[in-house]
Structures are given as C-alpha cells and as structure tokens.
Amino acid sequence: MPPIPDDADNIGMVGDAVSEPDHRRRTPHESDQEQTTRSFDMTHALMNIQIIPKAETPDDVYPAVESAIALVQDSGLGYEVGALGTTVEGEIDELFDLARRMNETIVAGGCRSVISQIRVYLGREPISMTSLTDRFRD
C-alpha cells in the first residue's frame, strides 16, 4: 500500500473506505467498464464448456448433457461439439448467458449438482473456431 500523503484532504476517518488511485490511461468521460471493453473485441469471443452433471445414476448423465447441447444447437451461435466439451463462438454476454442456461437445464432435469469448466478466449482481433483450426483439418 502506498504511503499516506501529508495533506489532510486525502486522509479519511477510521472506517472510511480508501481506494487506490487509478493510473490507467483513458479518454475523458470514459467509465471503468468502457476502459476494460475498449481493449478487447467482445463480439468475437470463443467459449469452451465442459458440463459434468452429478446424476442419480450413470445412465442419467448422458441425457442431461444432451439437454445442454440442445440449448447450444438452438442458440443460433456457431458451435462445435467435441468429445470432452463444446466450443461456441459469439458475443461474450451471449456466451455467458448460454453457459448459465446450460447449467440451469442440467439442474432442472433432476441432477443433484453440476460442475462446469469454462474457458473463454477474448482478443484484440476477431477470432473464430475456423481461423484457429482450419490448418489441421483435411
């Protein structure tokens, strides 16, 4: 924590919240949210999600996962189902909303709990599954 300045105007009373100074460069009138999103292309994100339901019996696991995949298929977003997870491309808020709905579907379907492993790619340039994998395809 930086030393407290000597001038009395910057010293708070005991219990007052003291925030660290924000030294990031920003344009005039730019909010913290705008500063964060300005650096990344939020409209071309990739999310890989692996859903691991805790079901009553092993036979209940596959229908639960299939119900989550059906949400992906109906989402209108680009996707690819893999053996160990599903990759979806789209706008970051759409992807997180989809992940939330997938988890809710698993629980609503009768599973006791669900673990989701989610990886997200955000970059300064637009990205797609095809641009990352085309050179490895026949």
Task: Give the number of helices.
Answer: 4
Shape: globular
Low-confidence stretches: 1-27
Strand order of the largest sheet: 2-3-1-4
Rg, alpha carbons: 22 Å
What's the CATH architecture of the domain at 45-136? 2-Layer Sandwich
* Beta strand count: 4
Q: How far is the first residue's CA from the last residue's CA? A: 55 Å
The residue fraction in helices comes out at 25-40%
SSE run:
HEHEEHEH
The main β sheet shows up as: 4 strands, antiparallel
Q: CATH fold name of the domain at 45-136, please?
A: Alpha-Beta Plaits
Q: At the first level of CATH, what is the class of the domain at 45-136?
A: Alpha Beta
Strand content: 15-25%
Structural class, please?
Answer: alpha+beta
